[in-house]
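Quick start: load a record and inspect it. Here is Zinc-type alcohol dehydrogenase-like protein:
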Amino acid sequence: MTEMKAVGLYHYLPISDPESLIDVTLPKPKAEGHDLLVKVKAISVNPVDVKVRAPKDKTEQTPKILGWDVAGVVEEVGEAVTLFQPGDEVYYAGSINRQGCYSEYHLVEESIVAKKPASLSFAEAAALPLTTITAWEALFDRLGVSKSKEDNKGKSILIINAAGGVGSIATQLANYFGLTVIGTASRPETEAWAKQHGTHIVINHHEAFPPQLEKEGISAVDYILCLHSTDKHWDNMAQAIAPQGHIASIVETEEPHDLGLLKSKSVSFAWEFMFTRALYQTEDRIEQHRLLDDVAKLVDQGIIKTTINKQLQGINAETLREAHQIVESNKMIGKLVVIE
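Running the structure step on this input writes:
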């Protein structure tokens, strides 16, 4: 049996514990059905990796492999695969209910994979999939933003945490499709990053939104995308949103909130979870293949920029523990990538 190296866990521990992520050897998977077997070249570490790994009273009998952001090369295809062939360079975010990508090889269903942007290195491409899918689905599927620049004339979006991984993509997409982008940031370096990636106006998320917006001549915003602390910003969002506006969030709540605050304005609220399509095997999951393909073209045209901001080398336990510590610090701007 052919084997591969991977990084996994048996116990859910603080990242300072050497047993939190360990080097393991596993059987090399085989591609069957609609699956691709991908040789992993680069991965990105996301907040979801940290959340899944976080301490909890649970143990695994076989190593659990984390990681949901990949750029690599197709090594083998299942018998039902039609979209790819061995040798294709691809990028994707995988599925939360399957083994992750902290490994030499990774299995993934073809419908959520796309060919990577030709103009990017594997490291640059690995920074994109999870945040790109999240930003695209939030904007166009959850908030209902039009893909017509003409339709978006005079409309605005407030992106809370504009300098984070998802924010860095959402600002670029919203800007490209013609929205006025207001981003939140609280440090000089995050404000600079947000402006560099397409934010027109920056406000501070530690202060009330409406007074800051009014200073910029904005009475209310048409869309809000919350990428940090739905709990903290709920009342602020309810005040800042325009009548018949739309709010979406990717951050789960820890306390109940009053939906009634949105009623008089007829405002909609939606959750975005980029794993939904793969997790529930929805009939439209091919949309993730399509949107990643669309974004790859925008990247190769120079319209969308990769959001990589830090790179580590070595897909091993020591390096990935370091990566988790960096992500856990909540000070990361853009994306952190680990190359083989």
